[in-house]
Design brief:
This protein has 630 residues and is α+β, with helices and mostly antiparallel strands. The protein is built from 20 helices and 19 strands.
Length: 630
């Protein structure tokens, strides 16, 4: 790929050649080149001054080694893009703790779910070539595996890419050399998977909801490979990585001769290398890519140029639009057919994606306009990595003054205040509050996607709707508008809508002042009371997402991450009670019991998980570990 500076130089030299035939062009050329070099040096120095150190909340500046030490991160690499060009890169720390193997600019990380936008790009490029239709039933393209009968005729590739198809299998466990590694077909059939013992299945009618499904991307991978007769690894290499000169990016896995040699190893919470340090992700489409921040910057800049109508190498404007256009705002606040679309740091709209494999991951974000971007990878666990990634992104946005103001009124009428103030049940099973603070209304969400909390004031945008009585509000760093509406069942909801689209989501139900939610019971009471609360909720709201395996599992692990063992055990006991045939439920309960020191019950529940899923190698290893006293 030609860099921005090379393009500028080439354009100028062309002008000089024409001029030189008329006059003394050499002197003009030398003077101009010197001026350009000086400008480039000045620009580089400006970014160095703003980004070479981390500015903490206390006003002190720290180098990035101190930054990663503070967050218990073994190693980090990041890149910053501005005006469609890579303006700053930095690396700190180690590829492998306890060694002198330092991370450099070419060190690749397991990118986890950041693989998904690449898979989506390949799919859209093949659609552009006429080899598939994103909106046709995916079953038309599958030869080596068949869709479950209940969903075969309705689910298409666009829905699978946007997680609106309603498929199960959220994410997958990592493997390592020497493991019994499942094939793609094994994965879809629920074979050799530590987290799943059943085949992938349909859990809701397409486009009626949103549920993250790595398994849905595996279906896409099988379809792409069946259509082309080539592996996804080869397709991505030939169609994207090689043309864009992404020299340190691959979808080939450890053990393959084409795998990279300069990689960052994965680490646990104690900053120790996990097994051999190099995870294998056989489900390549959702999580198998390795890359660097610089390479991902090349990829996203290509997208940004395409969206702006500029010349590109491989990604057309059509492909960029198909994979960044918002398909749904349910649950997360925005998702496209490949990219996340719920981020708005600095009140700028971004297309982005996060990635989290065991002991490694990162975040890639690029502005829909203006050519801004941040790409960061760290080889640390989620509990240490996410706060560090969030802090780094916030710091870059602040230091570069990437901030747009919301044009809104500060006045909010008493009528609207009464409508808004209260508690709301969020899509992530948390209680969101809107409260008065002087003349302002403050919105507080204790947990959003990525594990980041939020608190900010509501900005009044005016009224809309057929009767002109629906008040619209905005929040800093949120792309959607908020309003209060009553649904057909006469329940009051906090509603999200995306400006410029017809999309609307009755996102958060307003909670009555006297209402106690089942997860509040689980957070404060005992197991018996927790189970009773969930049973009562099930009787009243049988389709509630609070009852889903994913919701219970996530609630348990959030509590576990905070070392709130009683709450974590309550959630996992409810999980096993409601889903007694779910191997993962007993595996999660056993892990919480093991970490809380209840070895006997941990062993018993790992054995129950093994009985339900004999391929659960993690359960075998944990039992052996506890029995040996290691």
């Amino acid at each position: 790929m030609t860099s921005k500076h090379s393009i500028l130089t080439l354009s100028f030299v062309t002008i000089v050649v024409v001029t030189s035939s008329l006059n003394s062009g050499h002197a003009l050329s030398n003077a101009a080149n010197k001026a350009q070099t000086k400008n480039e040096t000045t620009n580089v120095q400006q970014y160095e001054e703003k980004l070479s150190r981390f500015l903490a909340a206390d006003g002190k500046q720290y180098d990035y080694q101190a930054f990663i030490d503070n967050f218990k991160i073994p190693g980090m690499s990041f890149a910053v893009v501005d005006n469609y060009d890579i303006v700053f890169t930095h690396q700190a720390g180690l590829k492998e703790s306890g060694t002198q193997q330092f991370i450099d600019a070419n060190t690749a990380f397991s990118t986890a779910s950041i693989s998904k936008p690449v898979t989506a790009t390949v799919a859209a490029m093949l659609a552009e070539q006429g080899k598939l239709d994103l909106d046709a039933p995916v079953s038309e393209y599958l030869k080596s595996w068949k869709m479950p009968s209940e969903s075969a005729k309705t689910i298409n590739i666009r829905q699978l890419l946007a997680h609106t198809a309603g498929m199960s299998q959220g994410g997958f466990a990592d493997f390592h050399l020497g493991d019994d590694i499942p094939t793609l077909i094994d994965s879809l059939n629920g074979v050799k998977l530590p987290r799943y013992s059943q085949p992938i299945s349909s859990i809701f009618t397409p486009e009626t909801d949103w549920e993250y499904s790595g398994g849905g991307y595996v279906i896409v991978q099988v379809a792409l490979e069946d259509i082309t007769g080539k592996s996804l690894e080869q397709l991505a290499q030939d169609m994207i990585f090689t043309p864009l000169n992404m020299q340190n990016t691959t979808m080939y896995q450890h053990g393959d001769r084409r795998f990279l040699s300069n990689v960052a190893k994965v680490h646990d919470a104690s900053q120790q290398v996990i097994r051999d340090g190099i995870p294998i992700c056989p489900q390549i489409a959702p999580s198998g890519m390795w890359s660097t921040p610089t390479d991902m910057a090349l990829f996203t800049i290509e997208y940004q140029k395409a969206l702006a109508g500029r010349p590109t190498e491989v990604v057309s404007k059509w492909v960029a639009e198909q994979t960044t256009q918002v398909q749904t705002i349910k649950k997360t606040g925005g998702w496209a057919a490949g990219w996340m679309r719920f981020e708005a740091q600095g009140n700028i709209e971004w297309f982005s994606h996060g990635g989290s494999n065991t002991g490694t991951g990162g975040h890639v974000m690029a502005s829909m306009q203006g050519g801004k971007g941040i790409m960061v990878f760290m080889n640390a666990t989620t509990q240490h990595r996410n706060p560090a990634v969030n802090a780094l992104i916030d710091n870059i946005v602040q230091n570069l003054d990437w901030q747009q103001n919301i044009s809104a009124s500060t006045f909010i009428s008493e009528k609207h205040r009464k409508q808004l103030v209260g508690r709301y049940l969020s899509t992530f099973d948390q209680i969101v509050t809107i409260a008065e603070q002087g003349e302002e209304l403050i919105y507080t969400n204790p947990l959003s996607i990525g594990g980041k909390s939020f608190e900010g004031k509501l900005h009044y945008l005016g009224e809309s709707g057929k009767t002109g009585t629906t008040a619209k509000f905005a929040l800093n760093t949120h792309p959607n508008q908020l309003s209060i509406e009553v649904n057909e069942s006469k329940q009051t909801y906090l509603v999200f809508s995306r400006q410029g689209t017809p999309l609307k989501d009755y996102s958060m139900r307003k909670i009555a002042a006297t209402e106690v939610l089942p997860f509040e019971v689980a957070q404060t009471k005992d197991v018996k009371q927790s189970i009773a609360a969930y049973e009562a909720w099930k009787a009243q709201y049988p389709q509630s997402r609070l009852l889903s395996p994913n919701a219970l599992n996530m609630a348990g692990y959030i509590a576990l991450g905070k070392q709130e063992f009683t709450a974590a055990l309550n959630f996992f006991h409810v999980y096993t009670h409601l889903y007694p045939q779910n191997a993962n439920a007993f595996d999660s309960l056993a892990e919480a019991q093991m970490l809380s020191g209840d070895t006997a019950n941990a062993i018993a529940n790992y054995k129950r998980s093994l009985k339900l899923s004999p391929d659960n190698d993690n359960a075998k290893k944990m039992i052996e570990k506890m029995q040996s006293g290691a």
